[in-house]
Design a protein that fits this description.
This protein has eight helices and twelve strands.
Length: 228
């Protein structure tokens, strides 16, 4: 199993840090936090940090100093949070090598996506994204991210079922195909339970792409933007 990516949150406001850590940990990352500059120094002096998010509660000069000492070749990628009026600080951070600078107030889900993008560029990405009509699915973390901003967890059986459909787009899968390749999660499942599993999966994904073919089975018809 691949090692978990490590993200350090330095002087990030508590409400934001709590929500961001929740997003990242559910996606399989290890989150470590430092509230004070001296804690950050100790944390970043160790090895293995992949991405550092520096909050705007830290003095901008201190944030740039951390970037100067711990960023660069072989170091972690830095994302600095700045206030909208701090254009000069934003430019200075980018010139010093910050991977990204975001303005507060910010959208935590967007910030988590920016962290994920940096990890992917470092070869540490853990996402496997499928875009449907009303939701995006990260298969590796088994998360459904709805356009409304809400998230749901897929069960292992639902992930197996979705992977089966993704592997066979526009092909009718019989009940036997599904039972063989994506068995139910309990030993009491019988043939008719397939219908219930499909209904629950459709509902959780908020999708019409999985069609019932009467008397034959089920078919996955990818949406136009699907690139799998």
């Amino acid at each position: 199993m691949a090692a978990r990516s490590i993200i350090a949150l330095v002087s990030v406001a508590e409400v934001v840090a709590t929500e961001l850590a929740d997003h990242l940990e559910r996606r399989g990352h290890d989150v470590r936090q430092a509230r004070q500059p001296w804690e950050a120094e100790s944390l970043l002096s160790g090895k293995g940090i992949d991405v550092v998010v520096v909050g705007d509660s830290l003095n901008q000069a201190e944030g740039r100093d951390l970037l100067r000492r711990h960023g660069g070749e072989g170091g972690p990628d830095f994302i600095l949070i700045c206030r909208p009026a701090d254009l000069v600080d934003k430019v200075l951070a980018l010139e010093l090598g910050a991977a990204d600078v975001v303005e507060s107030p910010l959208n935590v889900r967007e910030l988590a996506a920016r962290v994920g993008g940096l990890l992917s560029r470092r070869g540490r990405g853990t996402q496997e994204l499928i875009v449907l009509e009303n939701a995006t699915v990260d298969l590796r973390s088994a998360m459904v991210m709805h356009r409304s901003g809400t998230e749901e967890q897929l069960s292992p059986g639902q992930v197996a079922l979705l992977r089966l459909f993704l592997a066979s787009p526009r092909k009718v899968l019989t009940r036997d195909d599904i039972i063989a390749a994506a068995p139910a999660e309990n030993a009491d499942a019988f043939d008719r339970s397939i219908d219930s599993r499909i209904v629950r999966l459709r509902r959780k994904l908020d999708t019409e792409t999985i069609t019932t073919i009467r008397g034959a089975g089920y078919r996955f018809d990818p949406p136009q933007q699907f690139a799998g």
